[in-house]
């Protein structure tokens, strides 16, 4: 059996709590609900398999977003301050209760960009623990999950997205990712295929 990692990206209140600022922006609420149930199912599988490590990737930024500097902020460096999300000390940055890490599950730190690798210790952790196969879940599919998939590919990881354990803001965004993006950088499976795939 191969040692692999299940990575949960931004399973925090900002997406999943009823009061989450990003949850309120999601148009396809059914997609979000399905993803939550499937992340929970995947996490249960991982926690019952000693060959799967569970890694948690959060986004937590200081008030005023000094990490972004004072330059001509674009993209997420513009959108995040406008939405006033991910501020340390606010409830949105806390783990959604059912996805709070258990003892022994590693929390990736230092993230400042879209990818789970951006400014973090994720690559060092994976390499130092001889993990080459990773599974991605979390939010949002077409932004942070996709950015992580692309960078994981370029770093040489064998990466699979649990496609029904992640969500975009709209159904169109998810369909575009499935039809035009994922096959360039990795694989996609459904959560009910996850257990079988672990033993391949």
Give me the secondary-structure topology:
Elements: E1 4-9, H1 13-16, H2 29-47, E2 52-57, H3 76-83, E3 106-108, H4 122-128, E4 133-139, H5 141-154, E5 158-167, H6 171-180, H7 182-185, E6 187-189, H8 194-198
Parallel strand pairs: 1-2, 1-4, 2-3, 4-5, 5-6
Characterization of this structure:
- By secondary structure, this protein is an alpha/beta fold.
- It has one domain (4-198): Rossmann fold (3-Layer(aba) Sandwich), CATH 3.40.50.850.
- Helix content is 36%, strand content 18%.
- It has helices spanning 13-16, 29-47, 76-83, 122-128, 141-154, 171-180, 182-185, 194-198, and strands at 4-9, 52-57, 106-108, 133-139, 158-167, 187-189.
- α3 (76-83) links the parallel β2 and β3.
- The longest helix has 19 residues, at 29-47.
């Amino acid at each position: 059996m191969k040692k692999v990692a299940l990575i949960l990206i931004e399973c925090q209140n900002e997406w999943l709590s009823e009061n989450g600022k990003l949850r309120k922006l999601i148009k396809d609420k059914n997609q979000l609900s399905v993803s939550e149930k499937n992340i929970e199912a995947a996490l249960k599988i991982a926690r019952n398999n000693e060959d799967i490590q569970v890694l948690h990737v959060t986004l937590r930024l200081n008030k005023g977003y000094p990490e972004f500097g004072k330059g001509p902020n674009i993209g997420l460096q513009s959108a995040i301050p406008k939405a006033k999300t991910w501020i340390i000390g606010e409830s949105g940055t806390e783990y959604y209760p059912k996805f709070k890490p258990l003892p022994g599950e590693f929390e990736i730190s230092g993230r400042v960009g879209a990818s789970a690798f951006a400014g973090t210790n994720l690559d060092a952790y994976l390499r130092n623990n001889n993990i080459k196969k990773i599974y991605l879940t979390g939010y949002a599919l077409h932004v942070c999950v996709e950015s992580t998939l692309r960078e994981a590919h370029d770093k040489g990881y064998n990466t699979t997205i649990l496609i029904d354990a992640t969500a975009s803001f709209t159904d169109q965004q998810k369909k575009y990712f499935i039809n035009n993006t994922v096959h360039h950088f990795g694989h996609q499976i459904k959560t009910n295929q996850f257990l079988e795939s672990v033993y391949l």
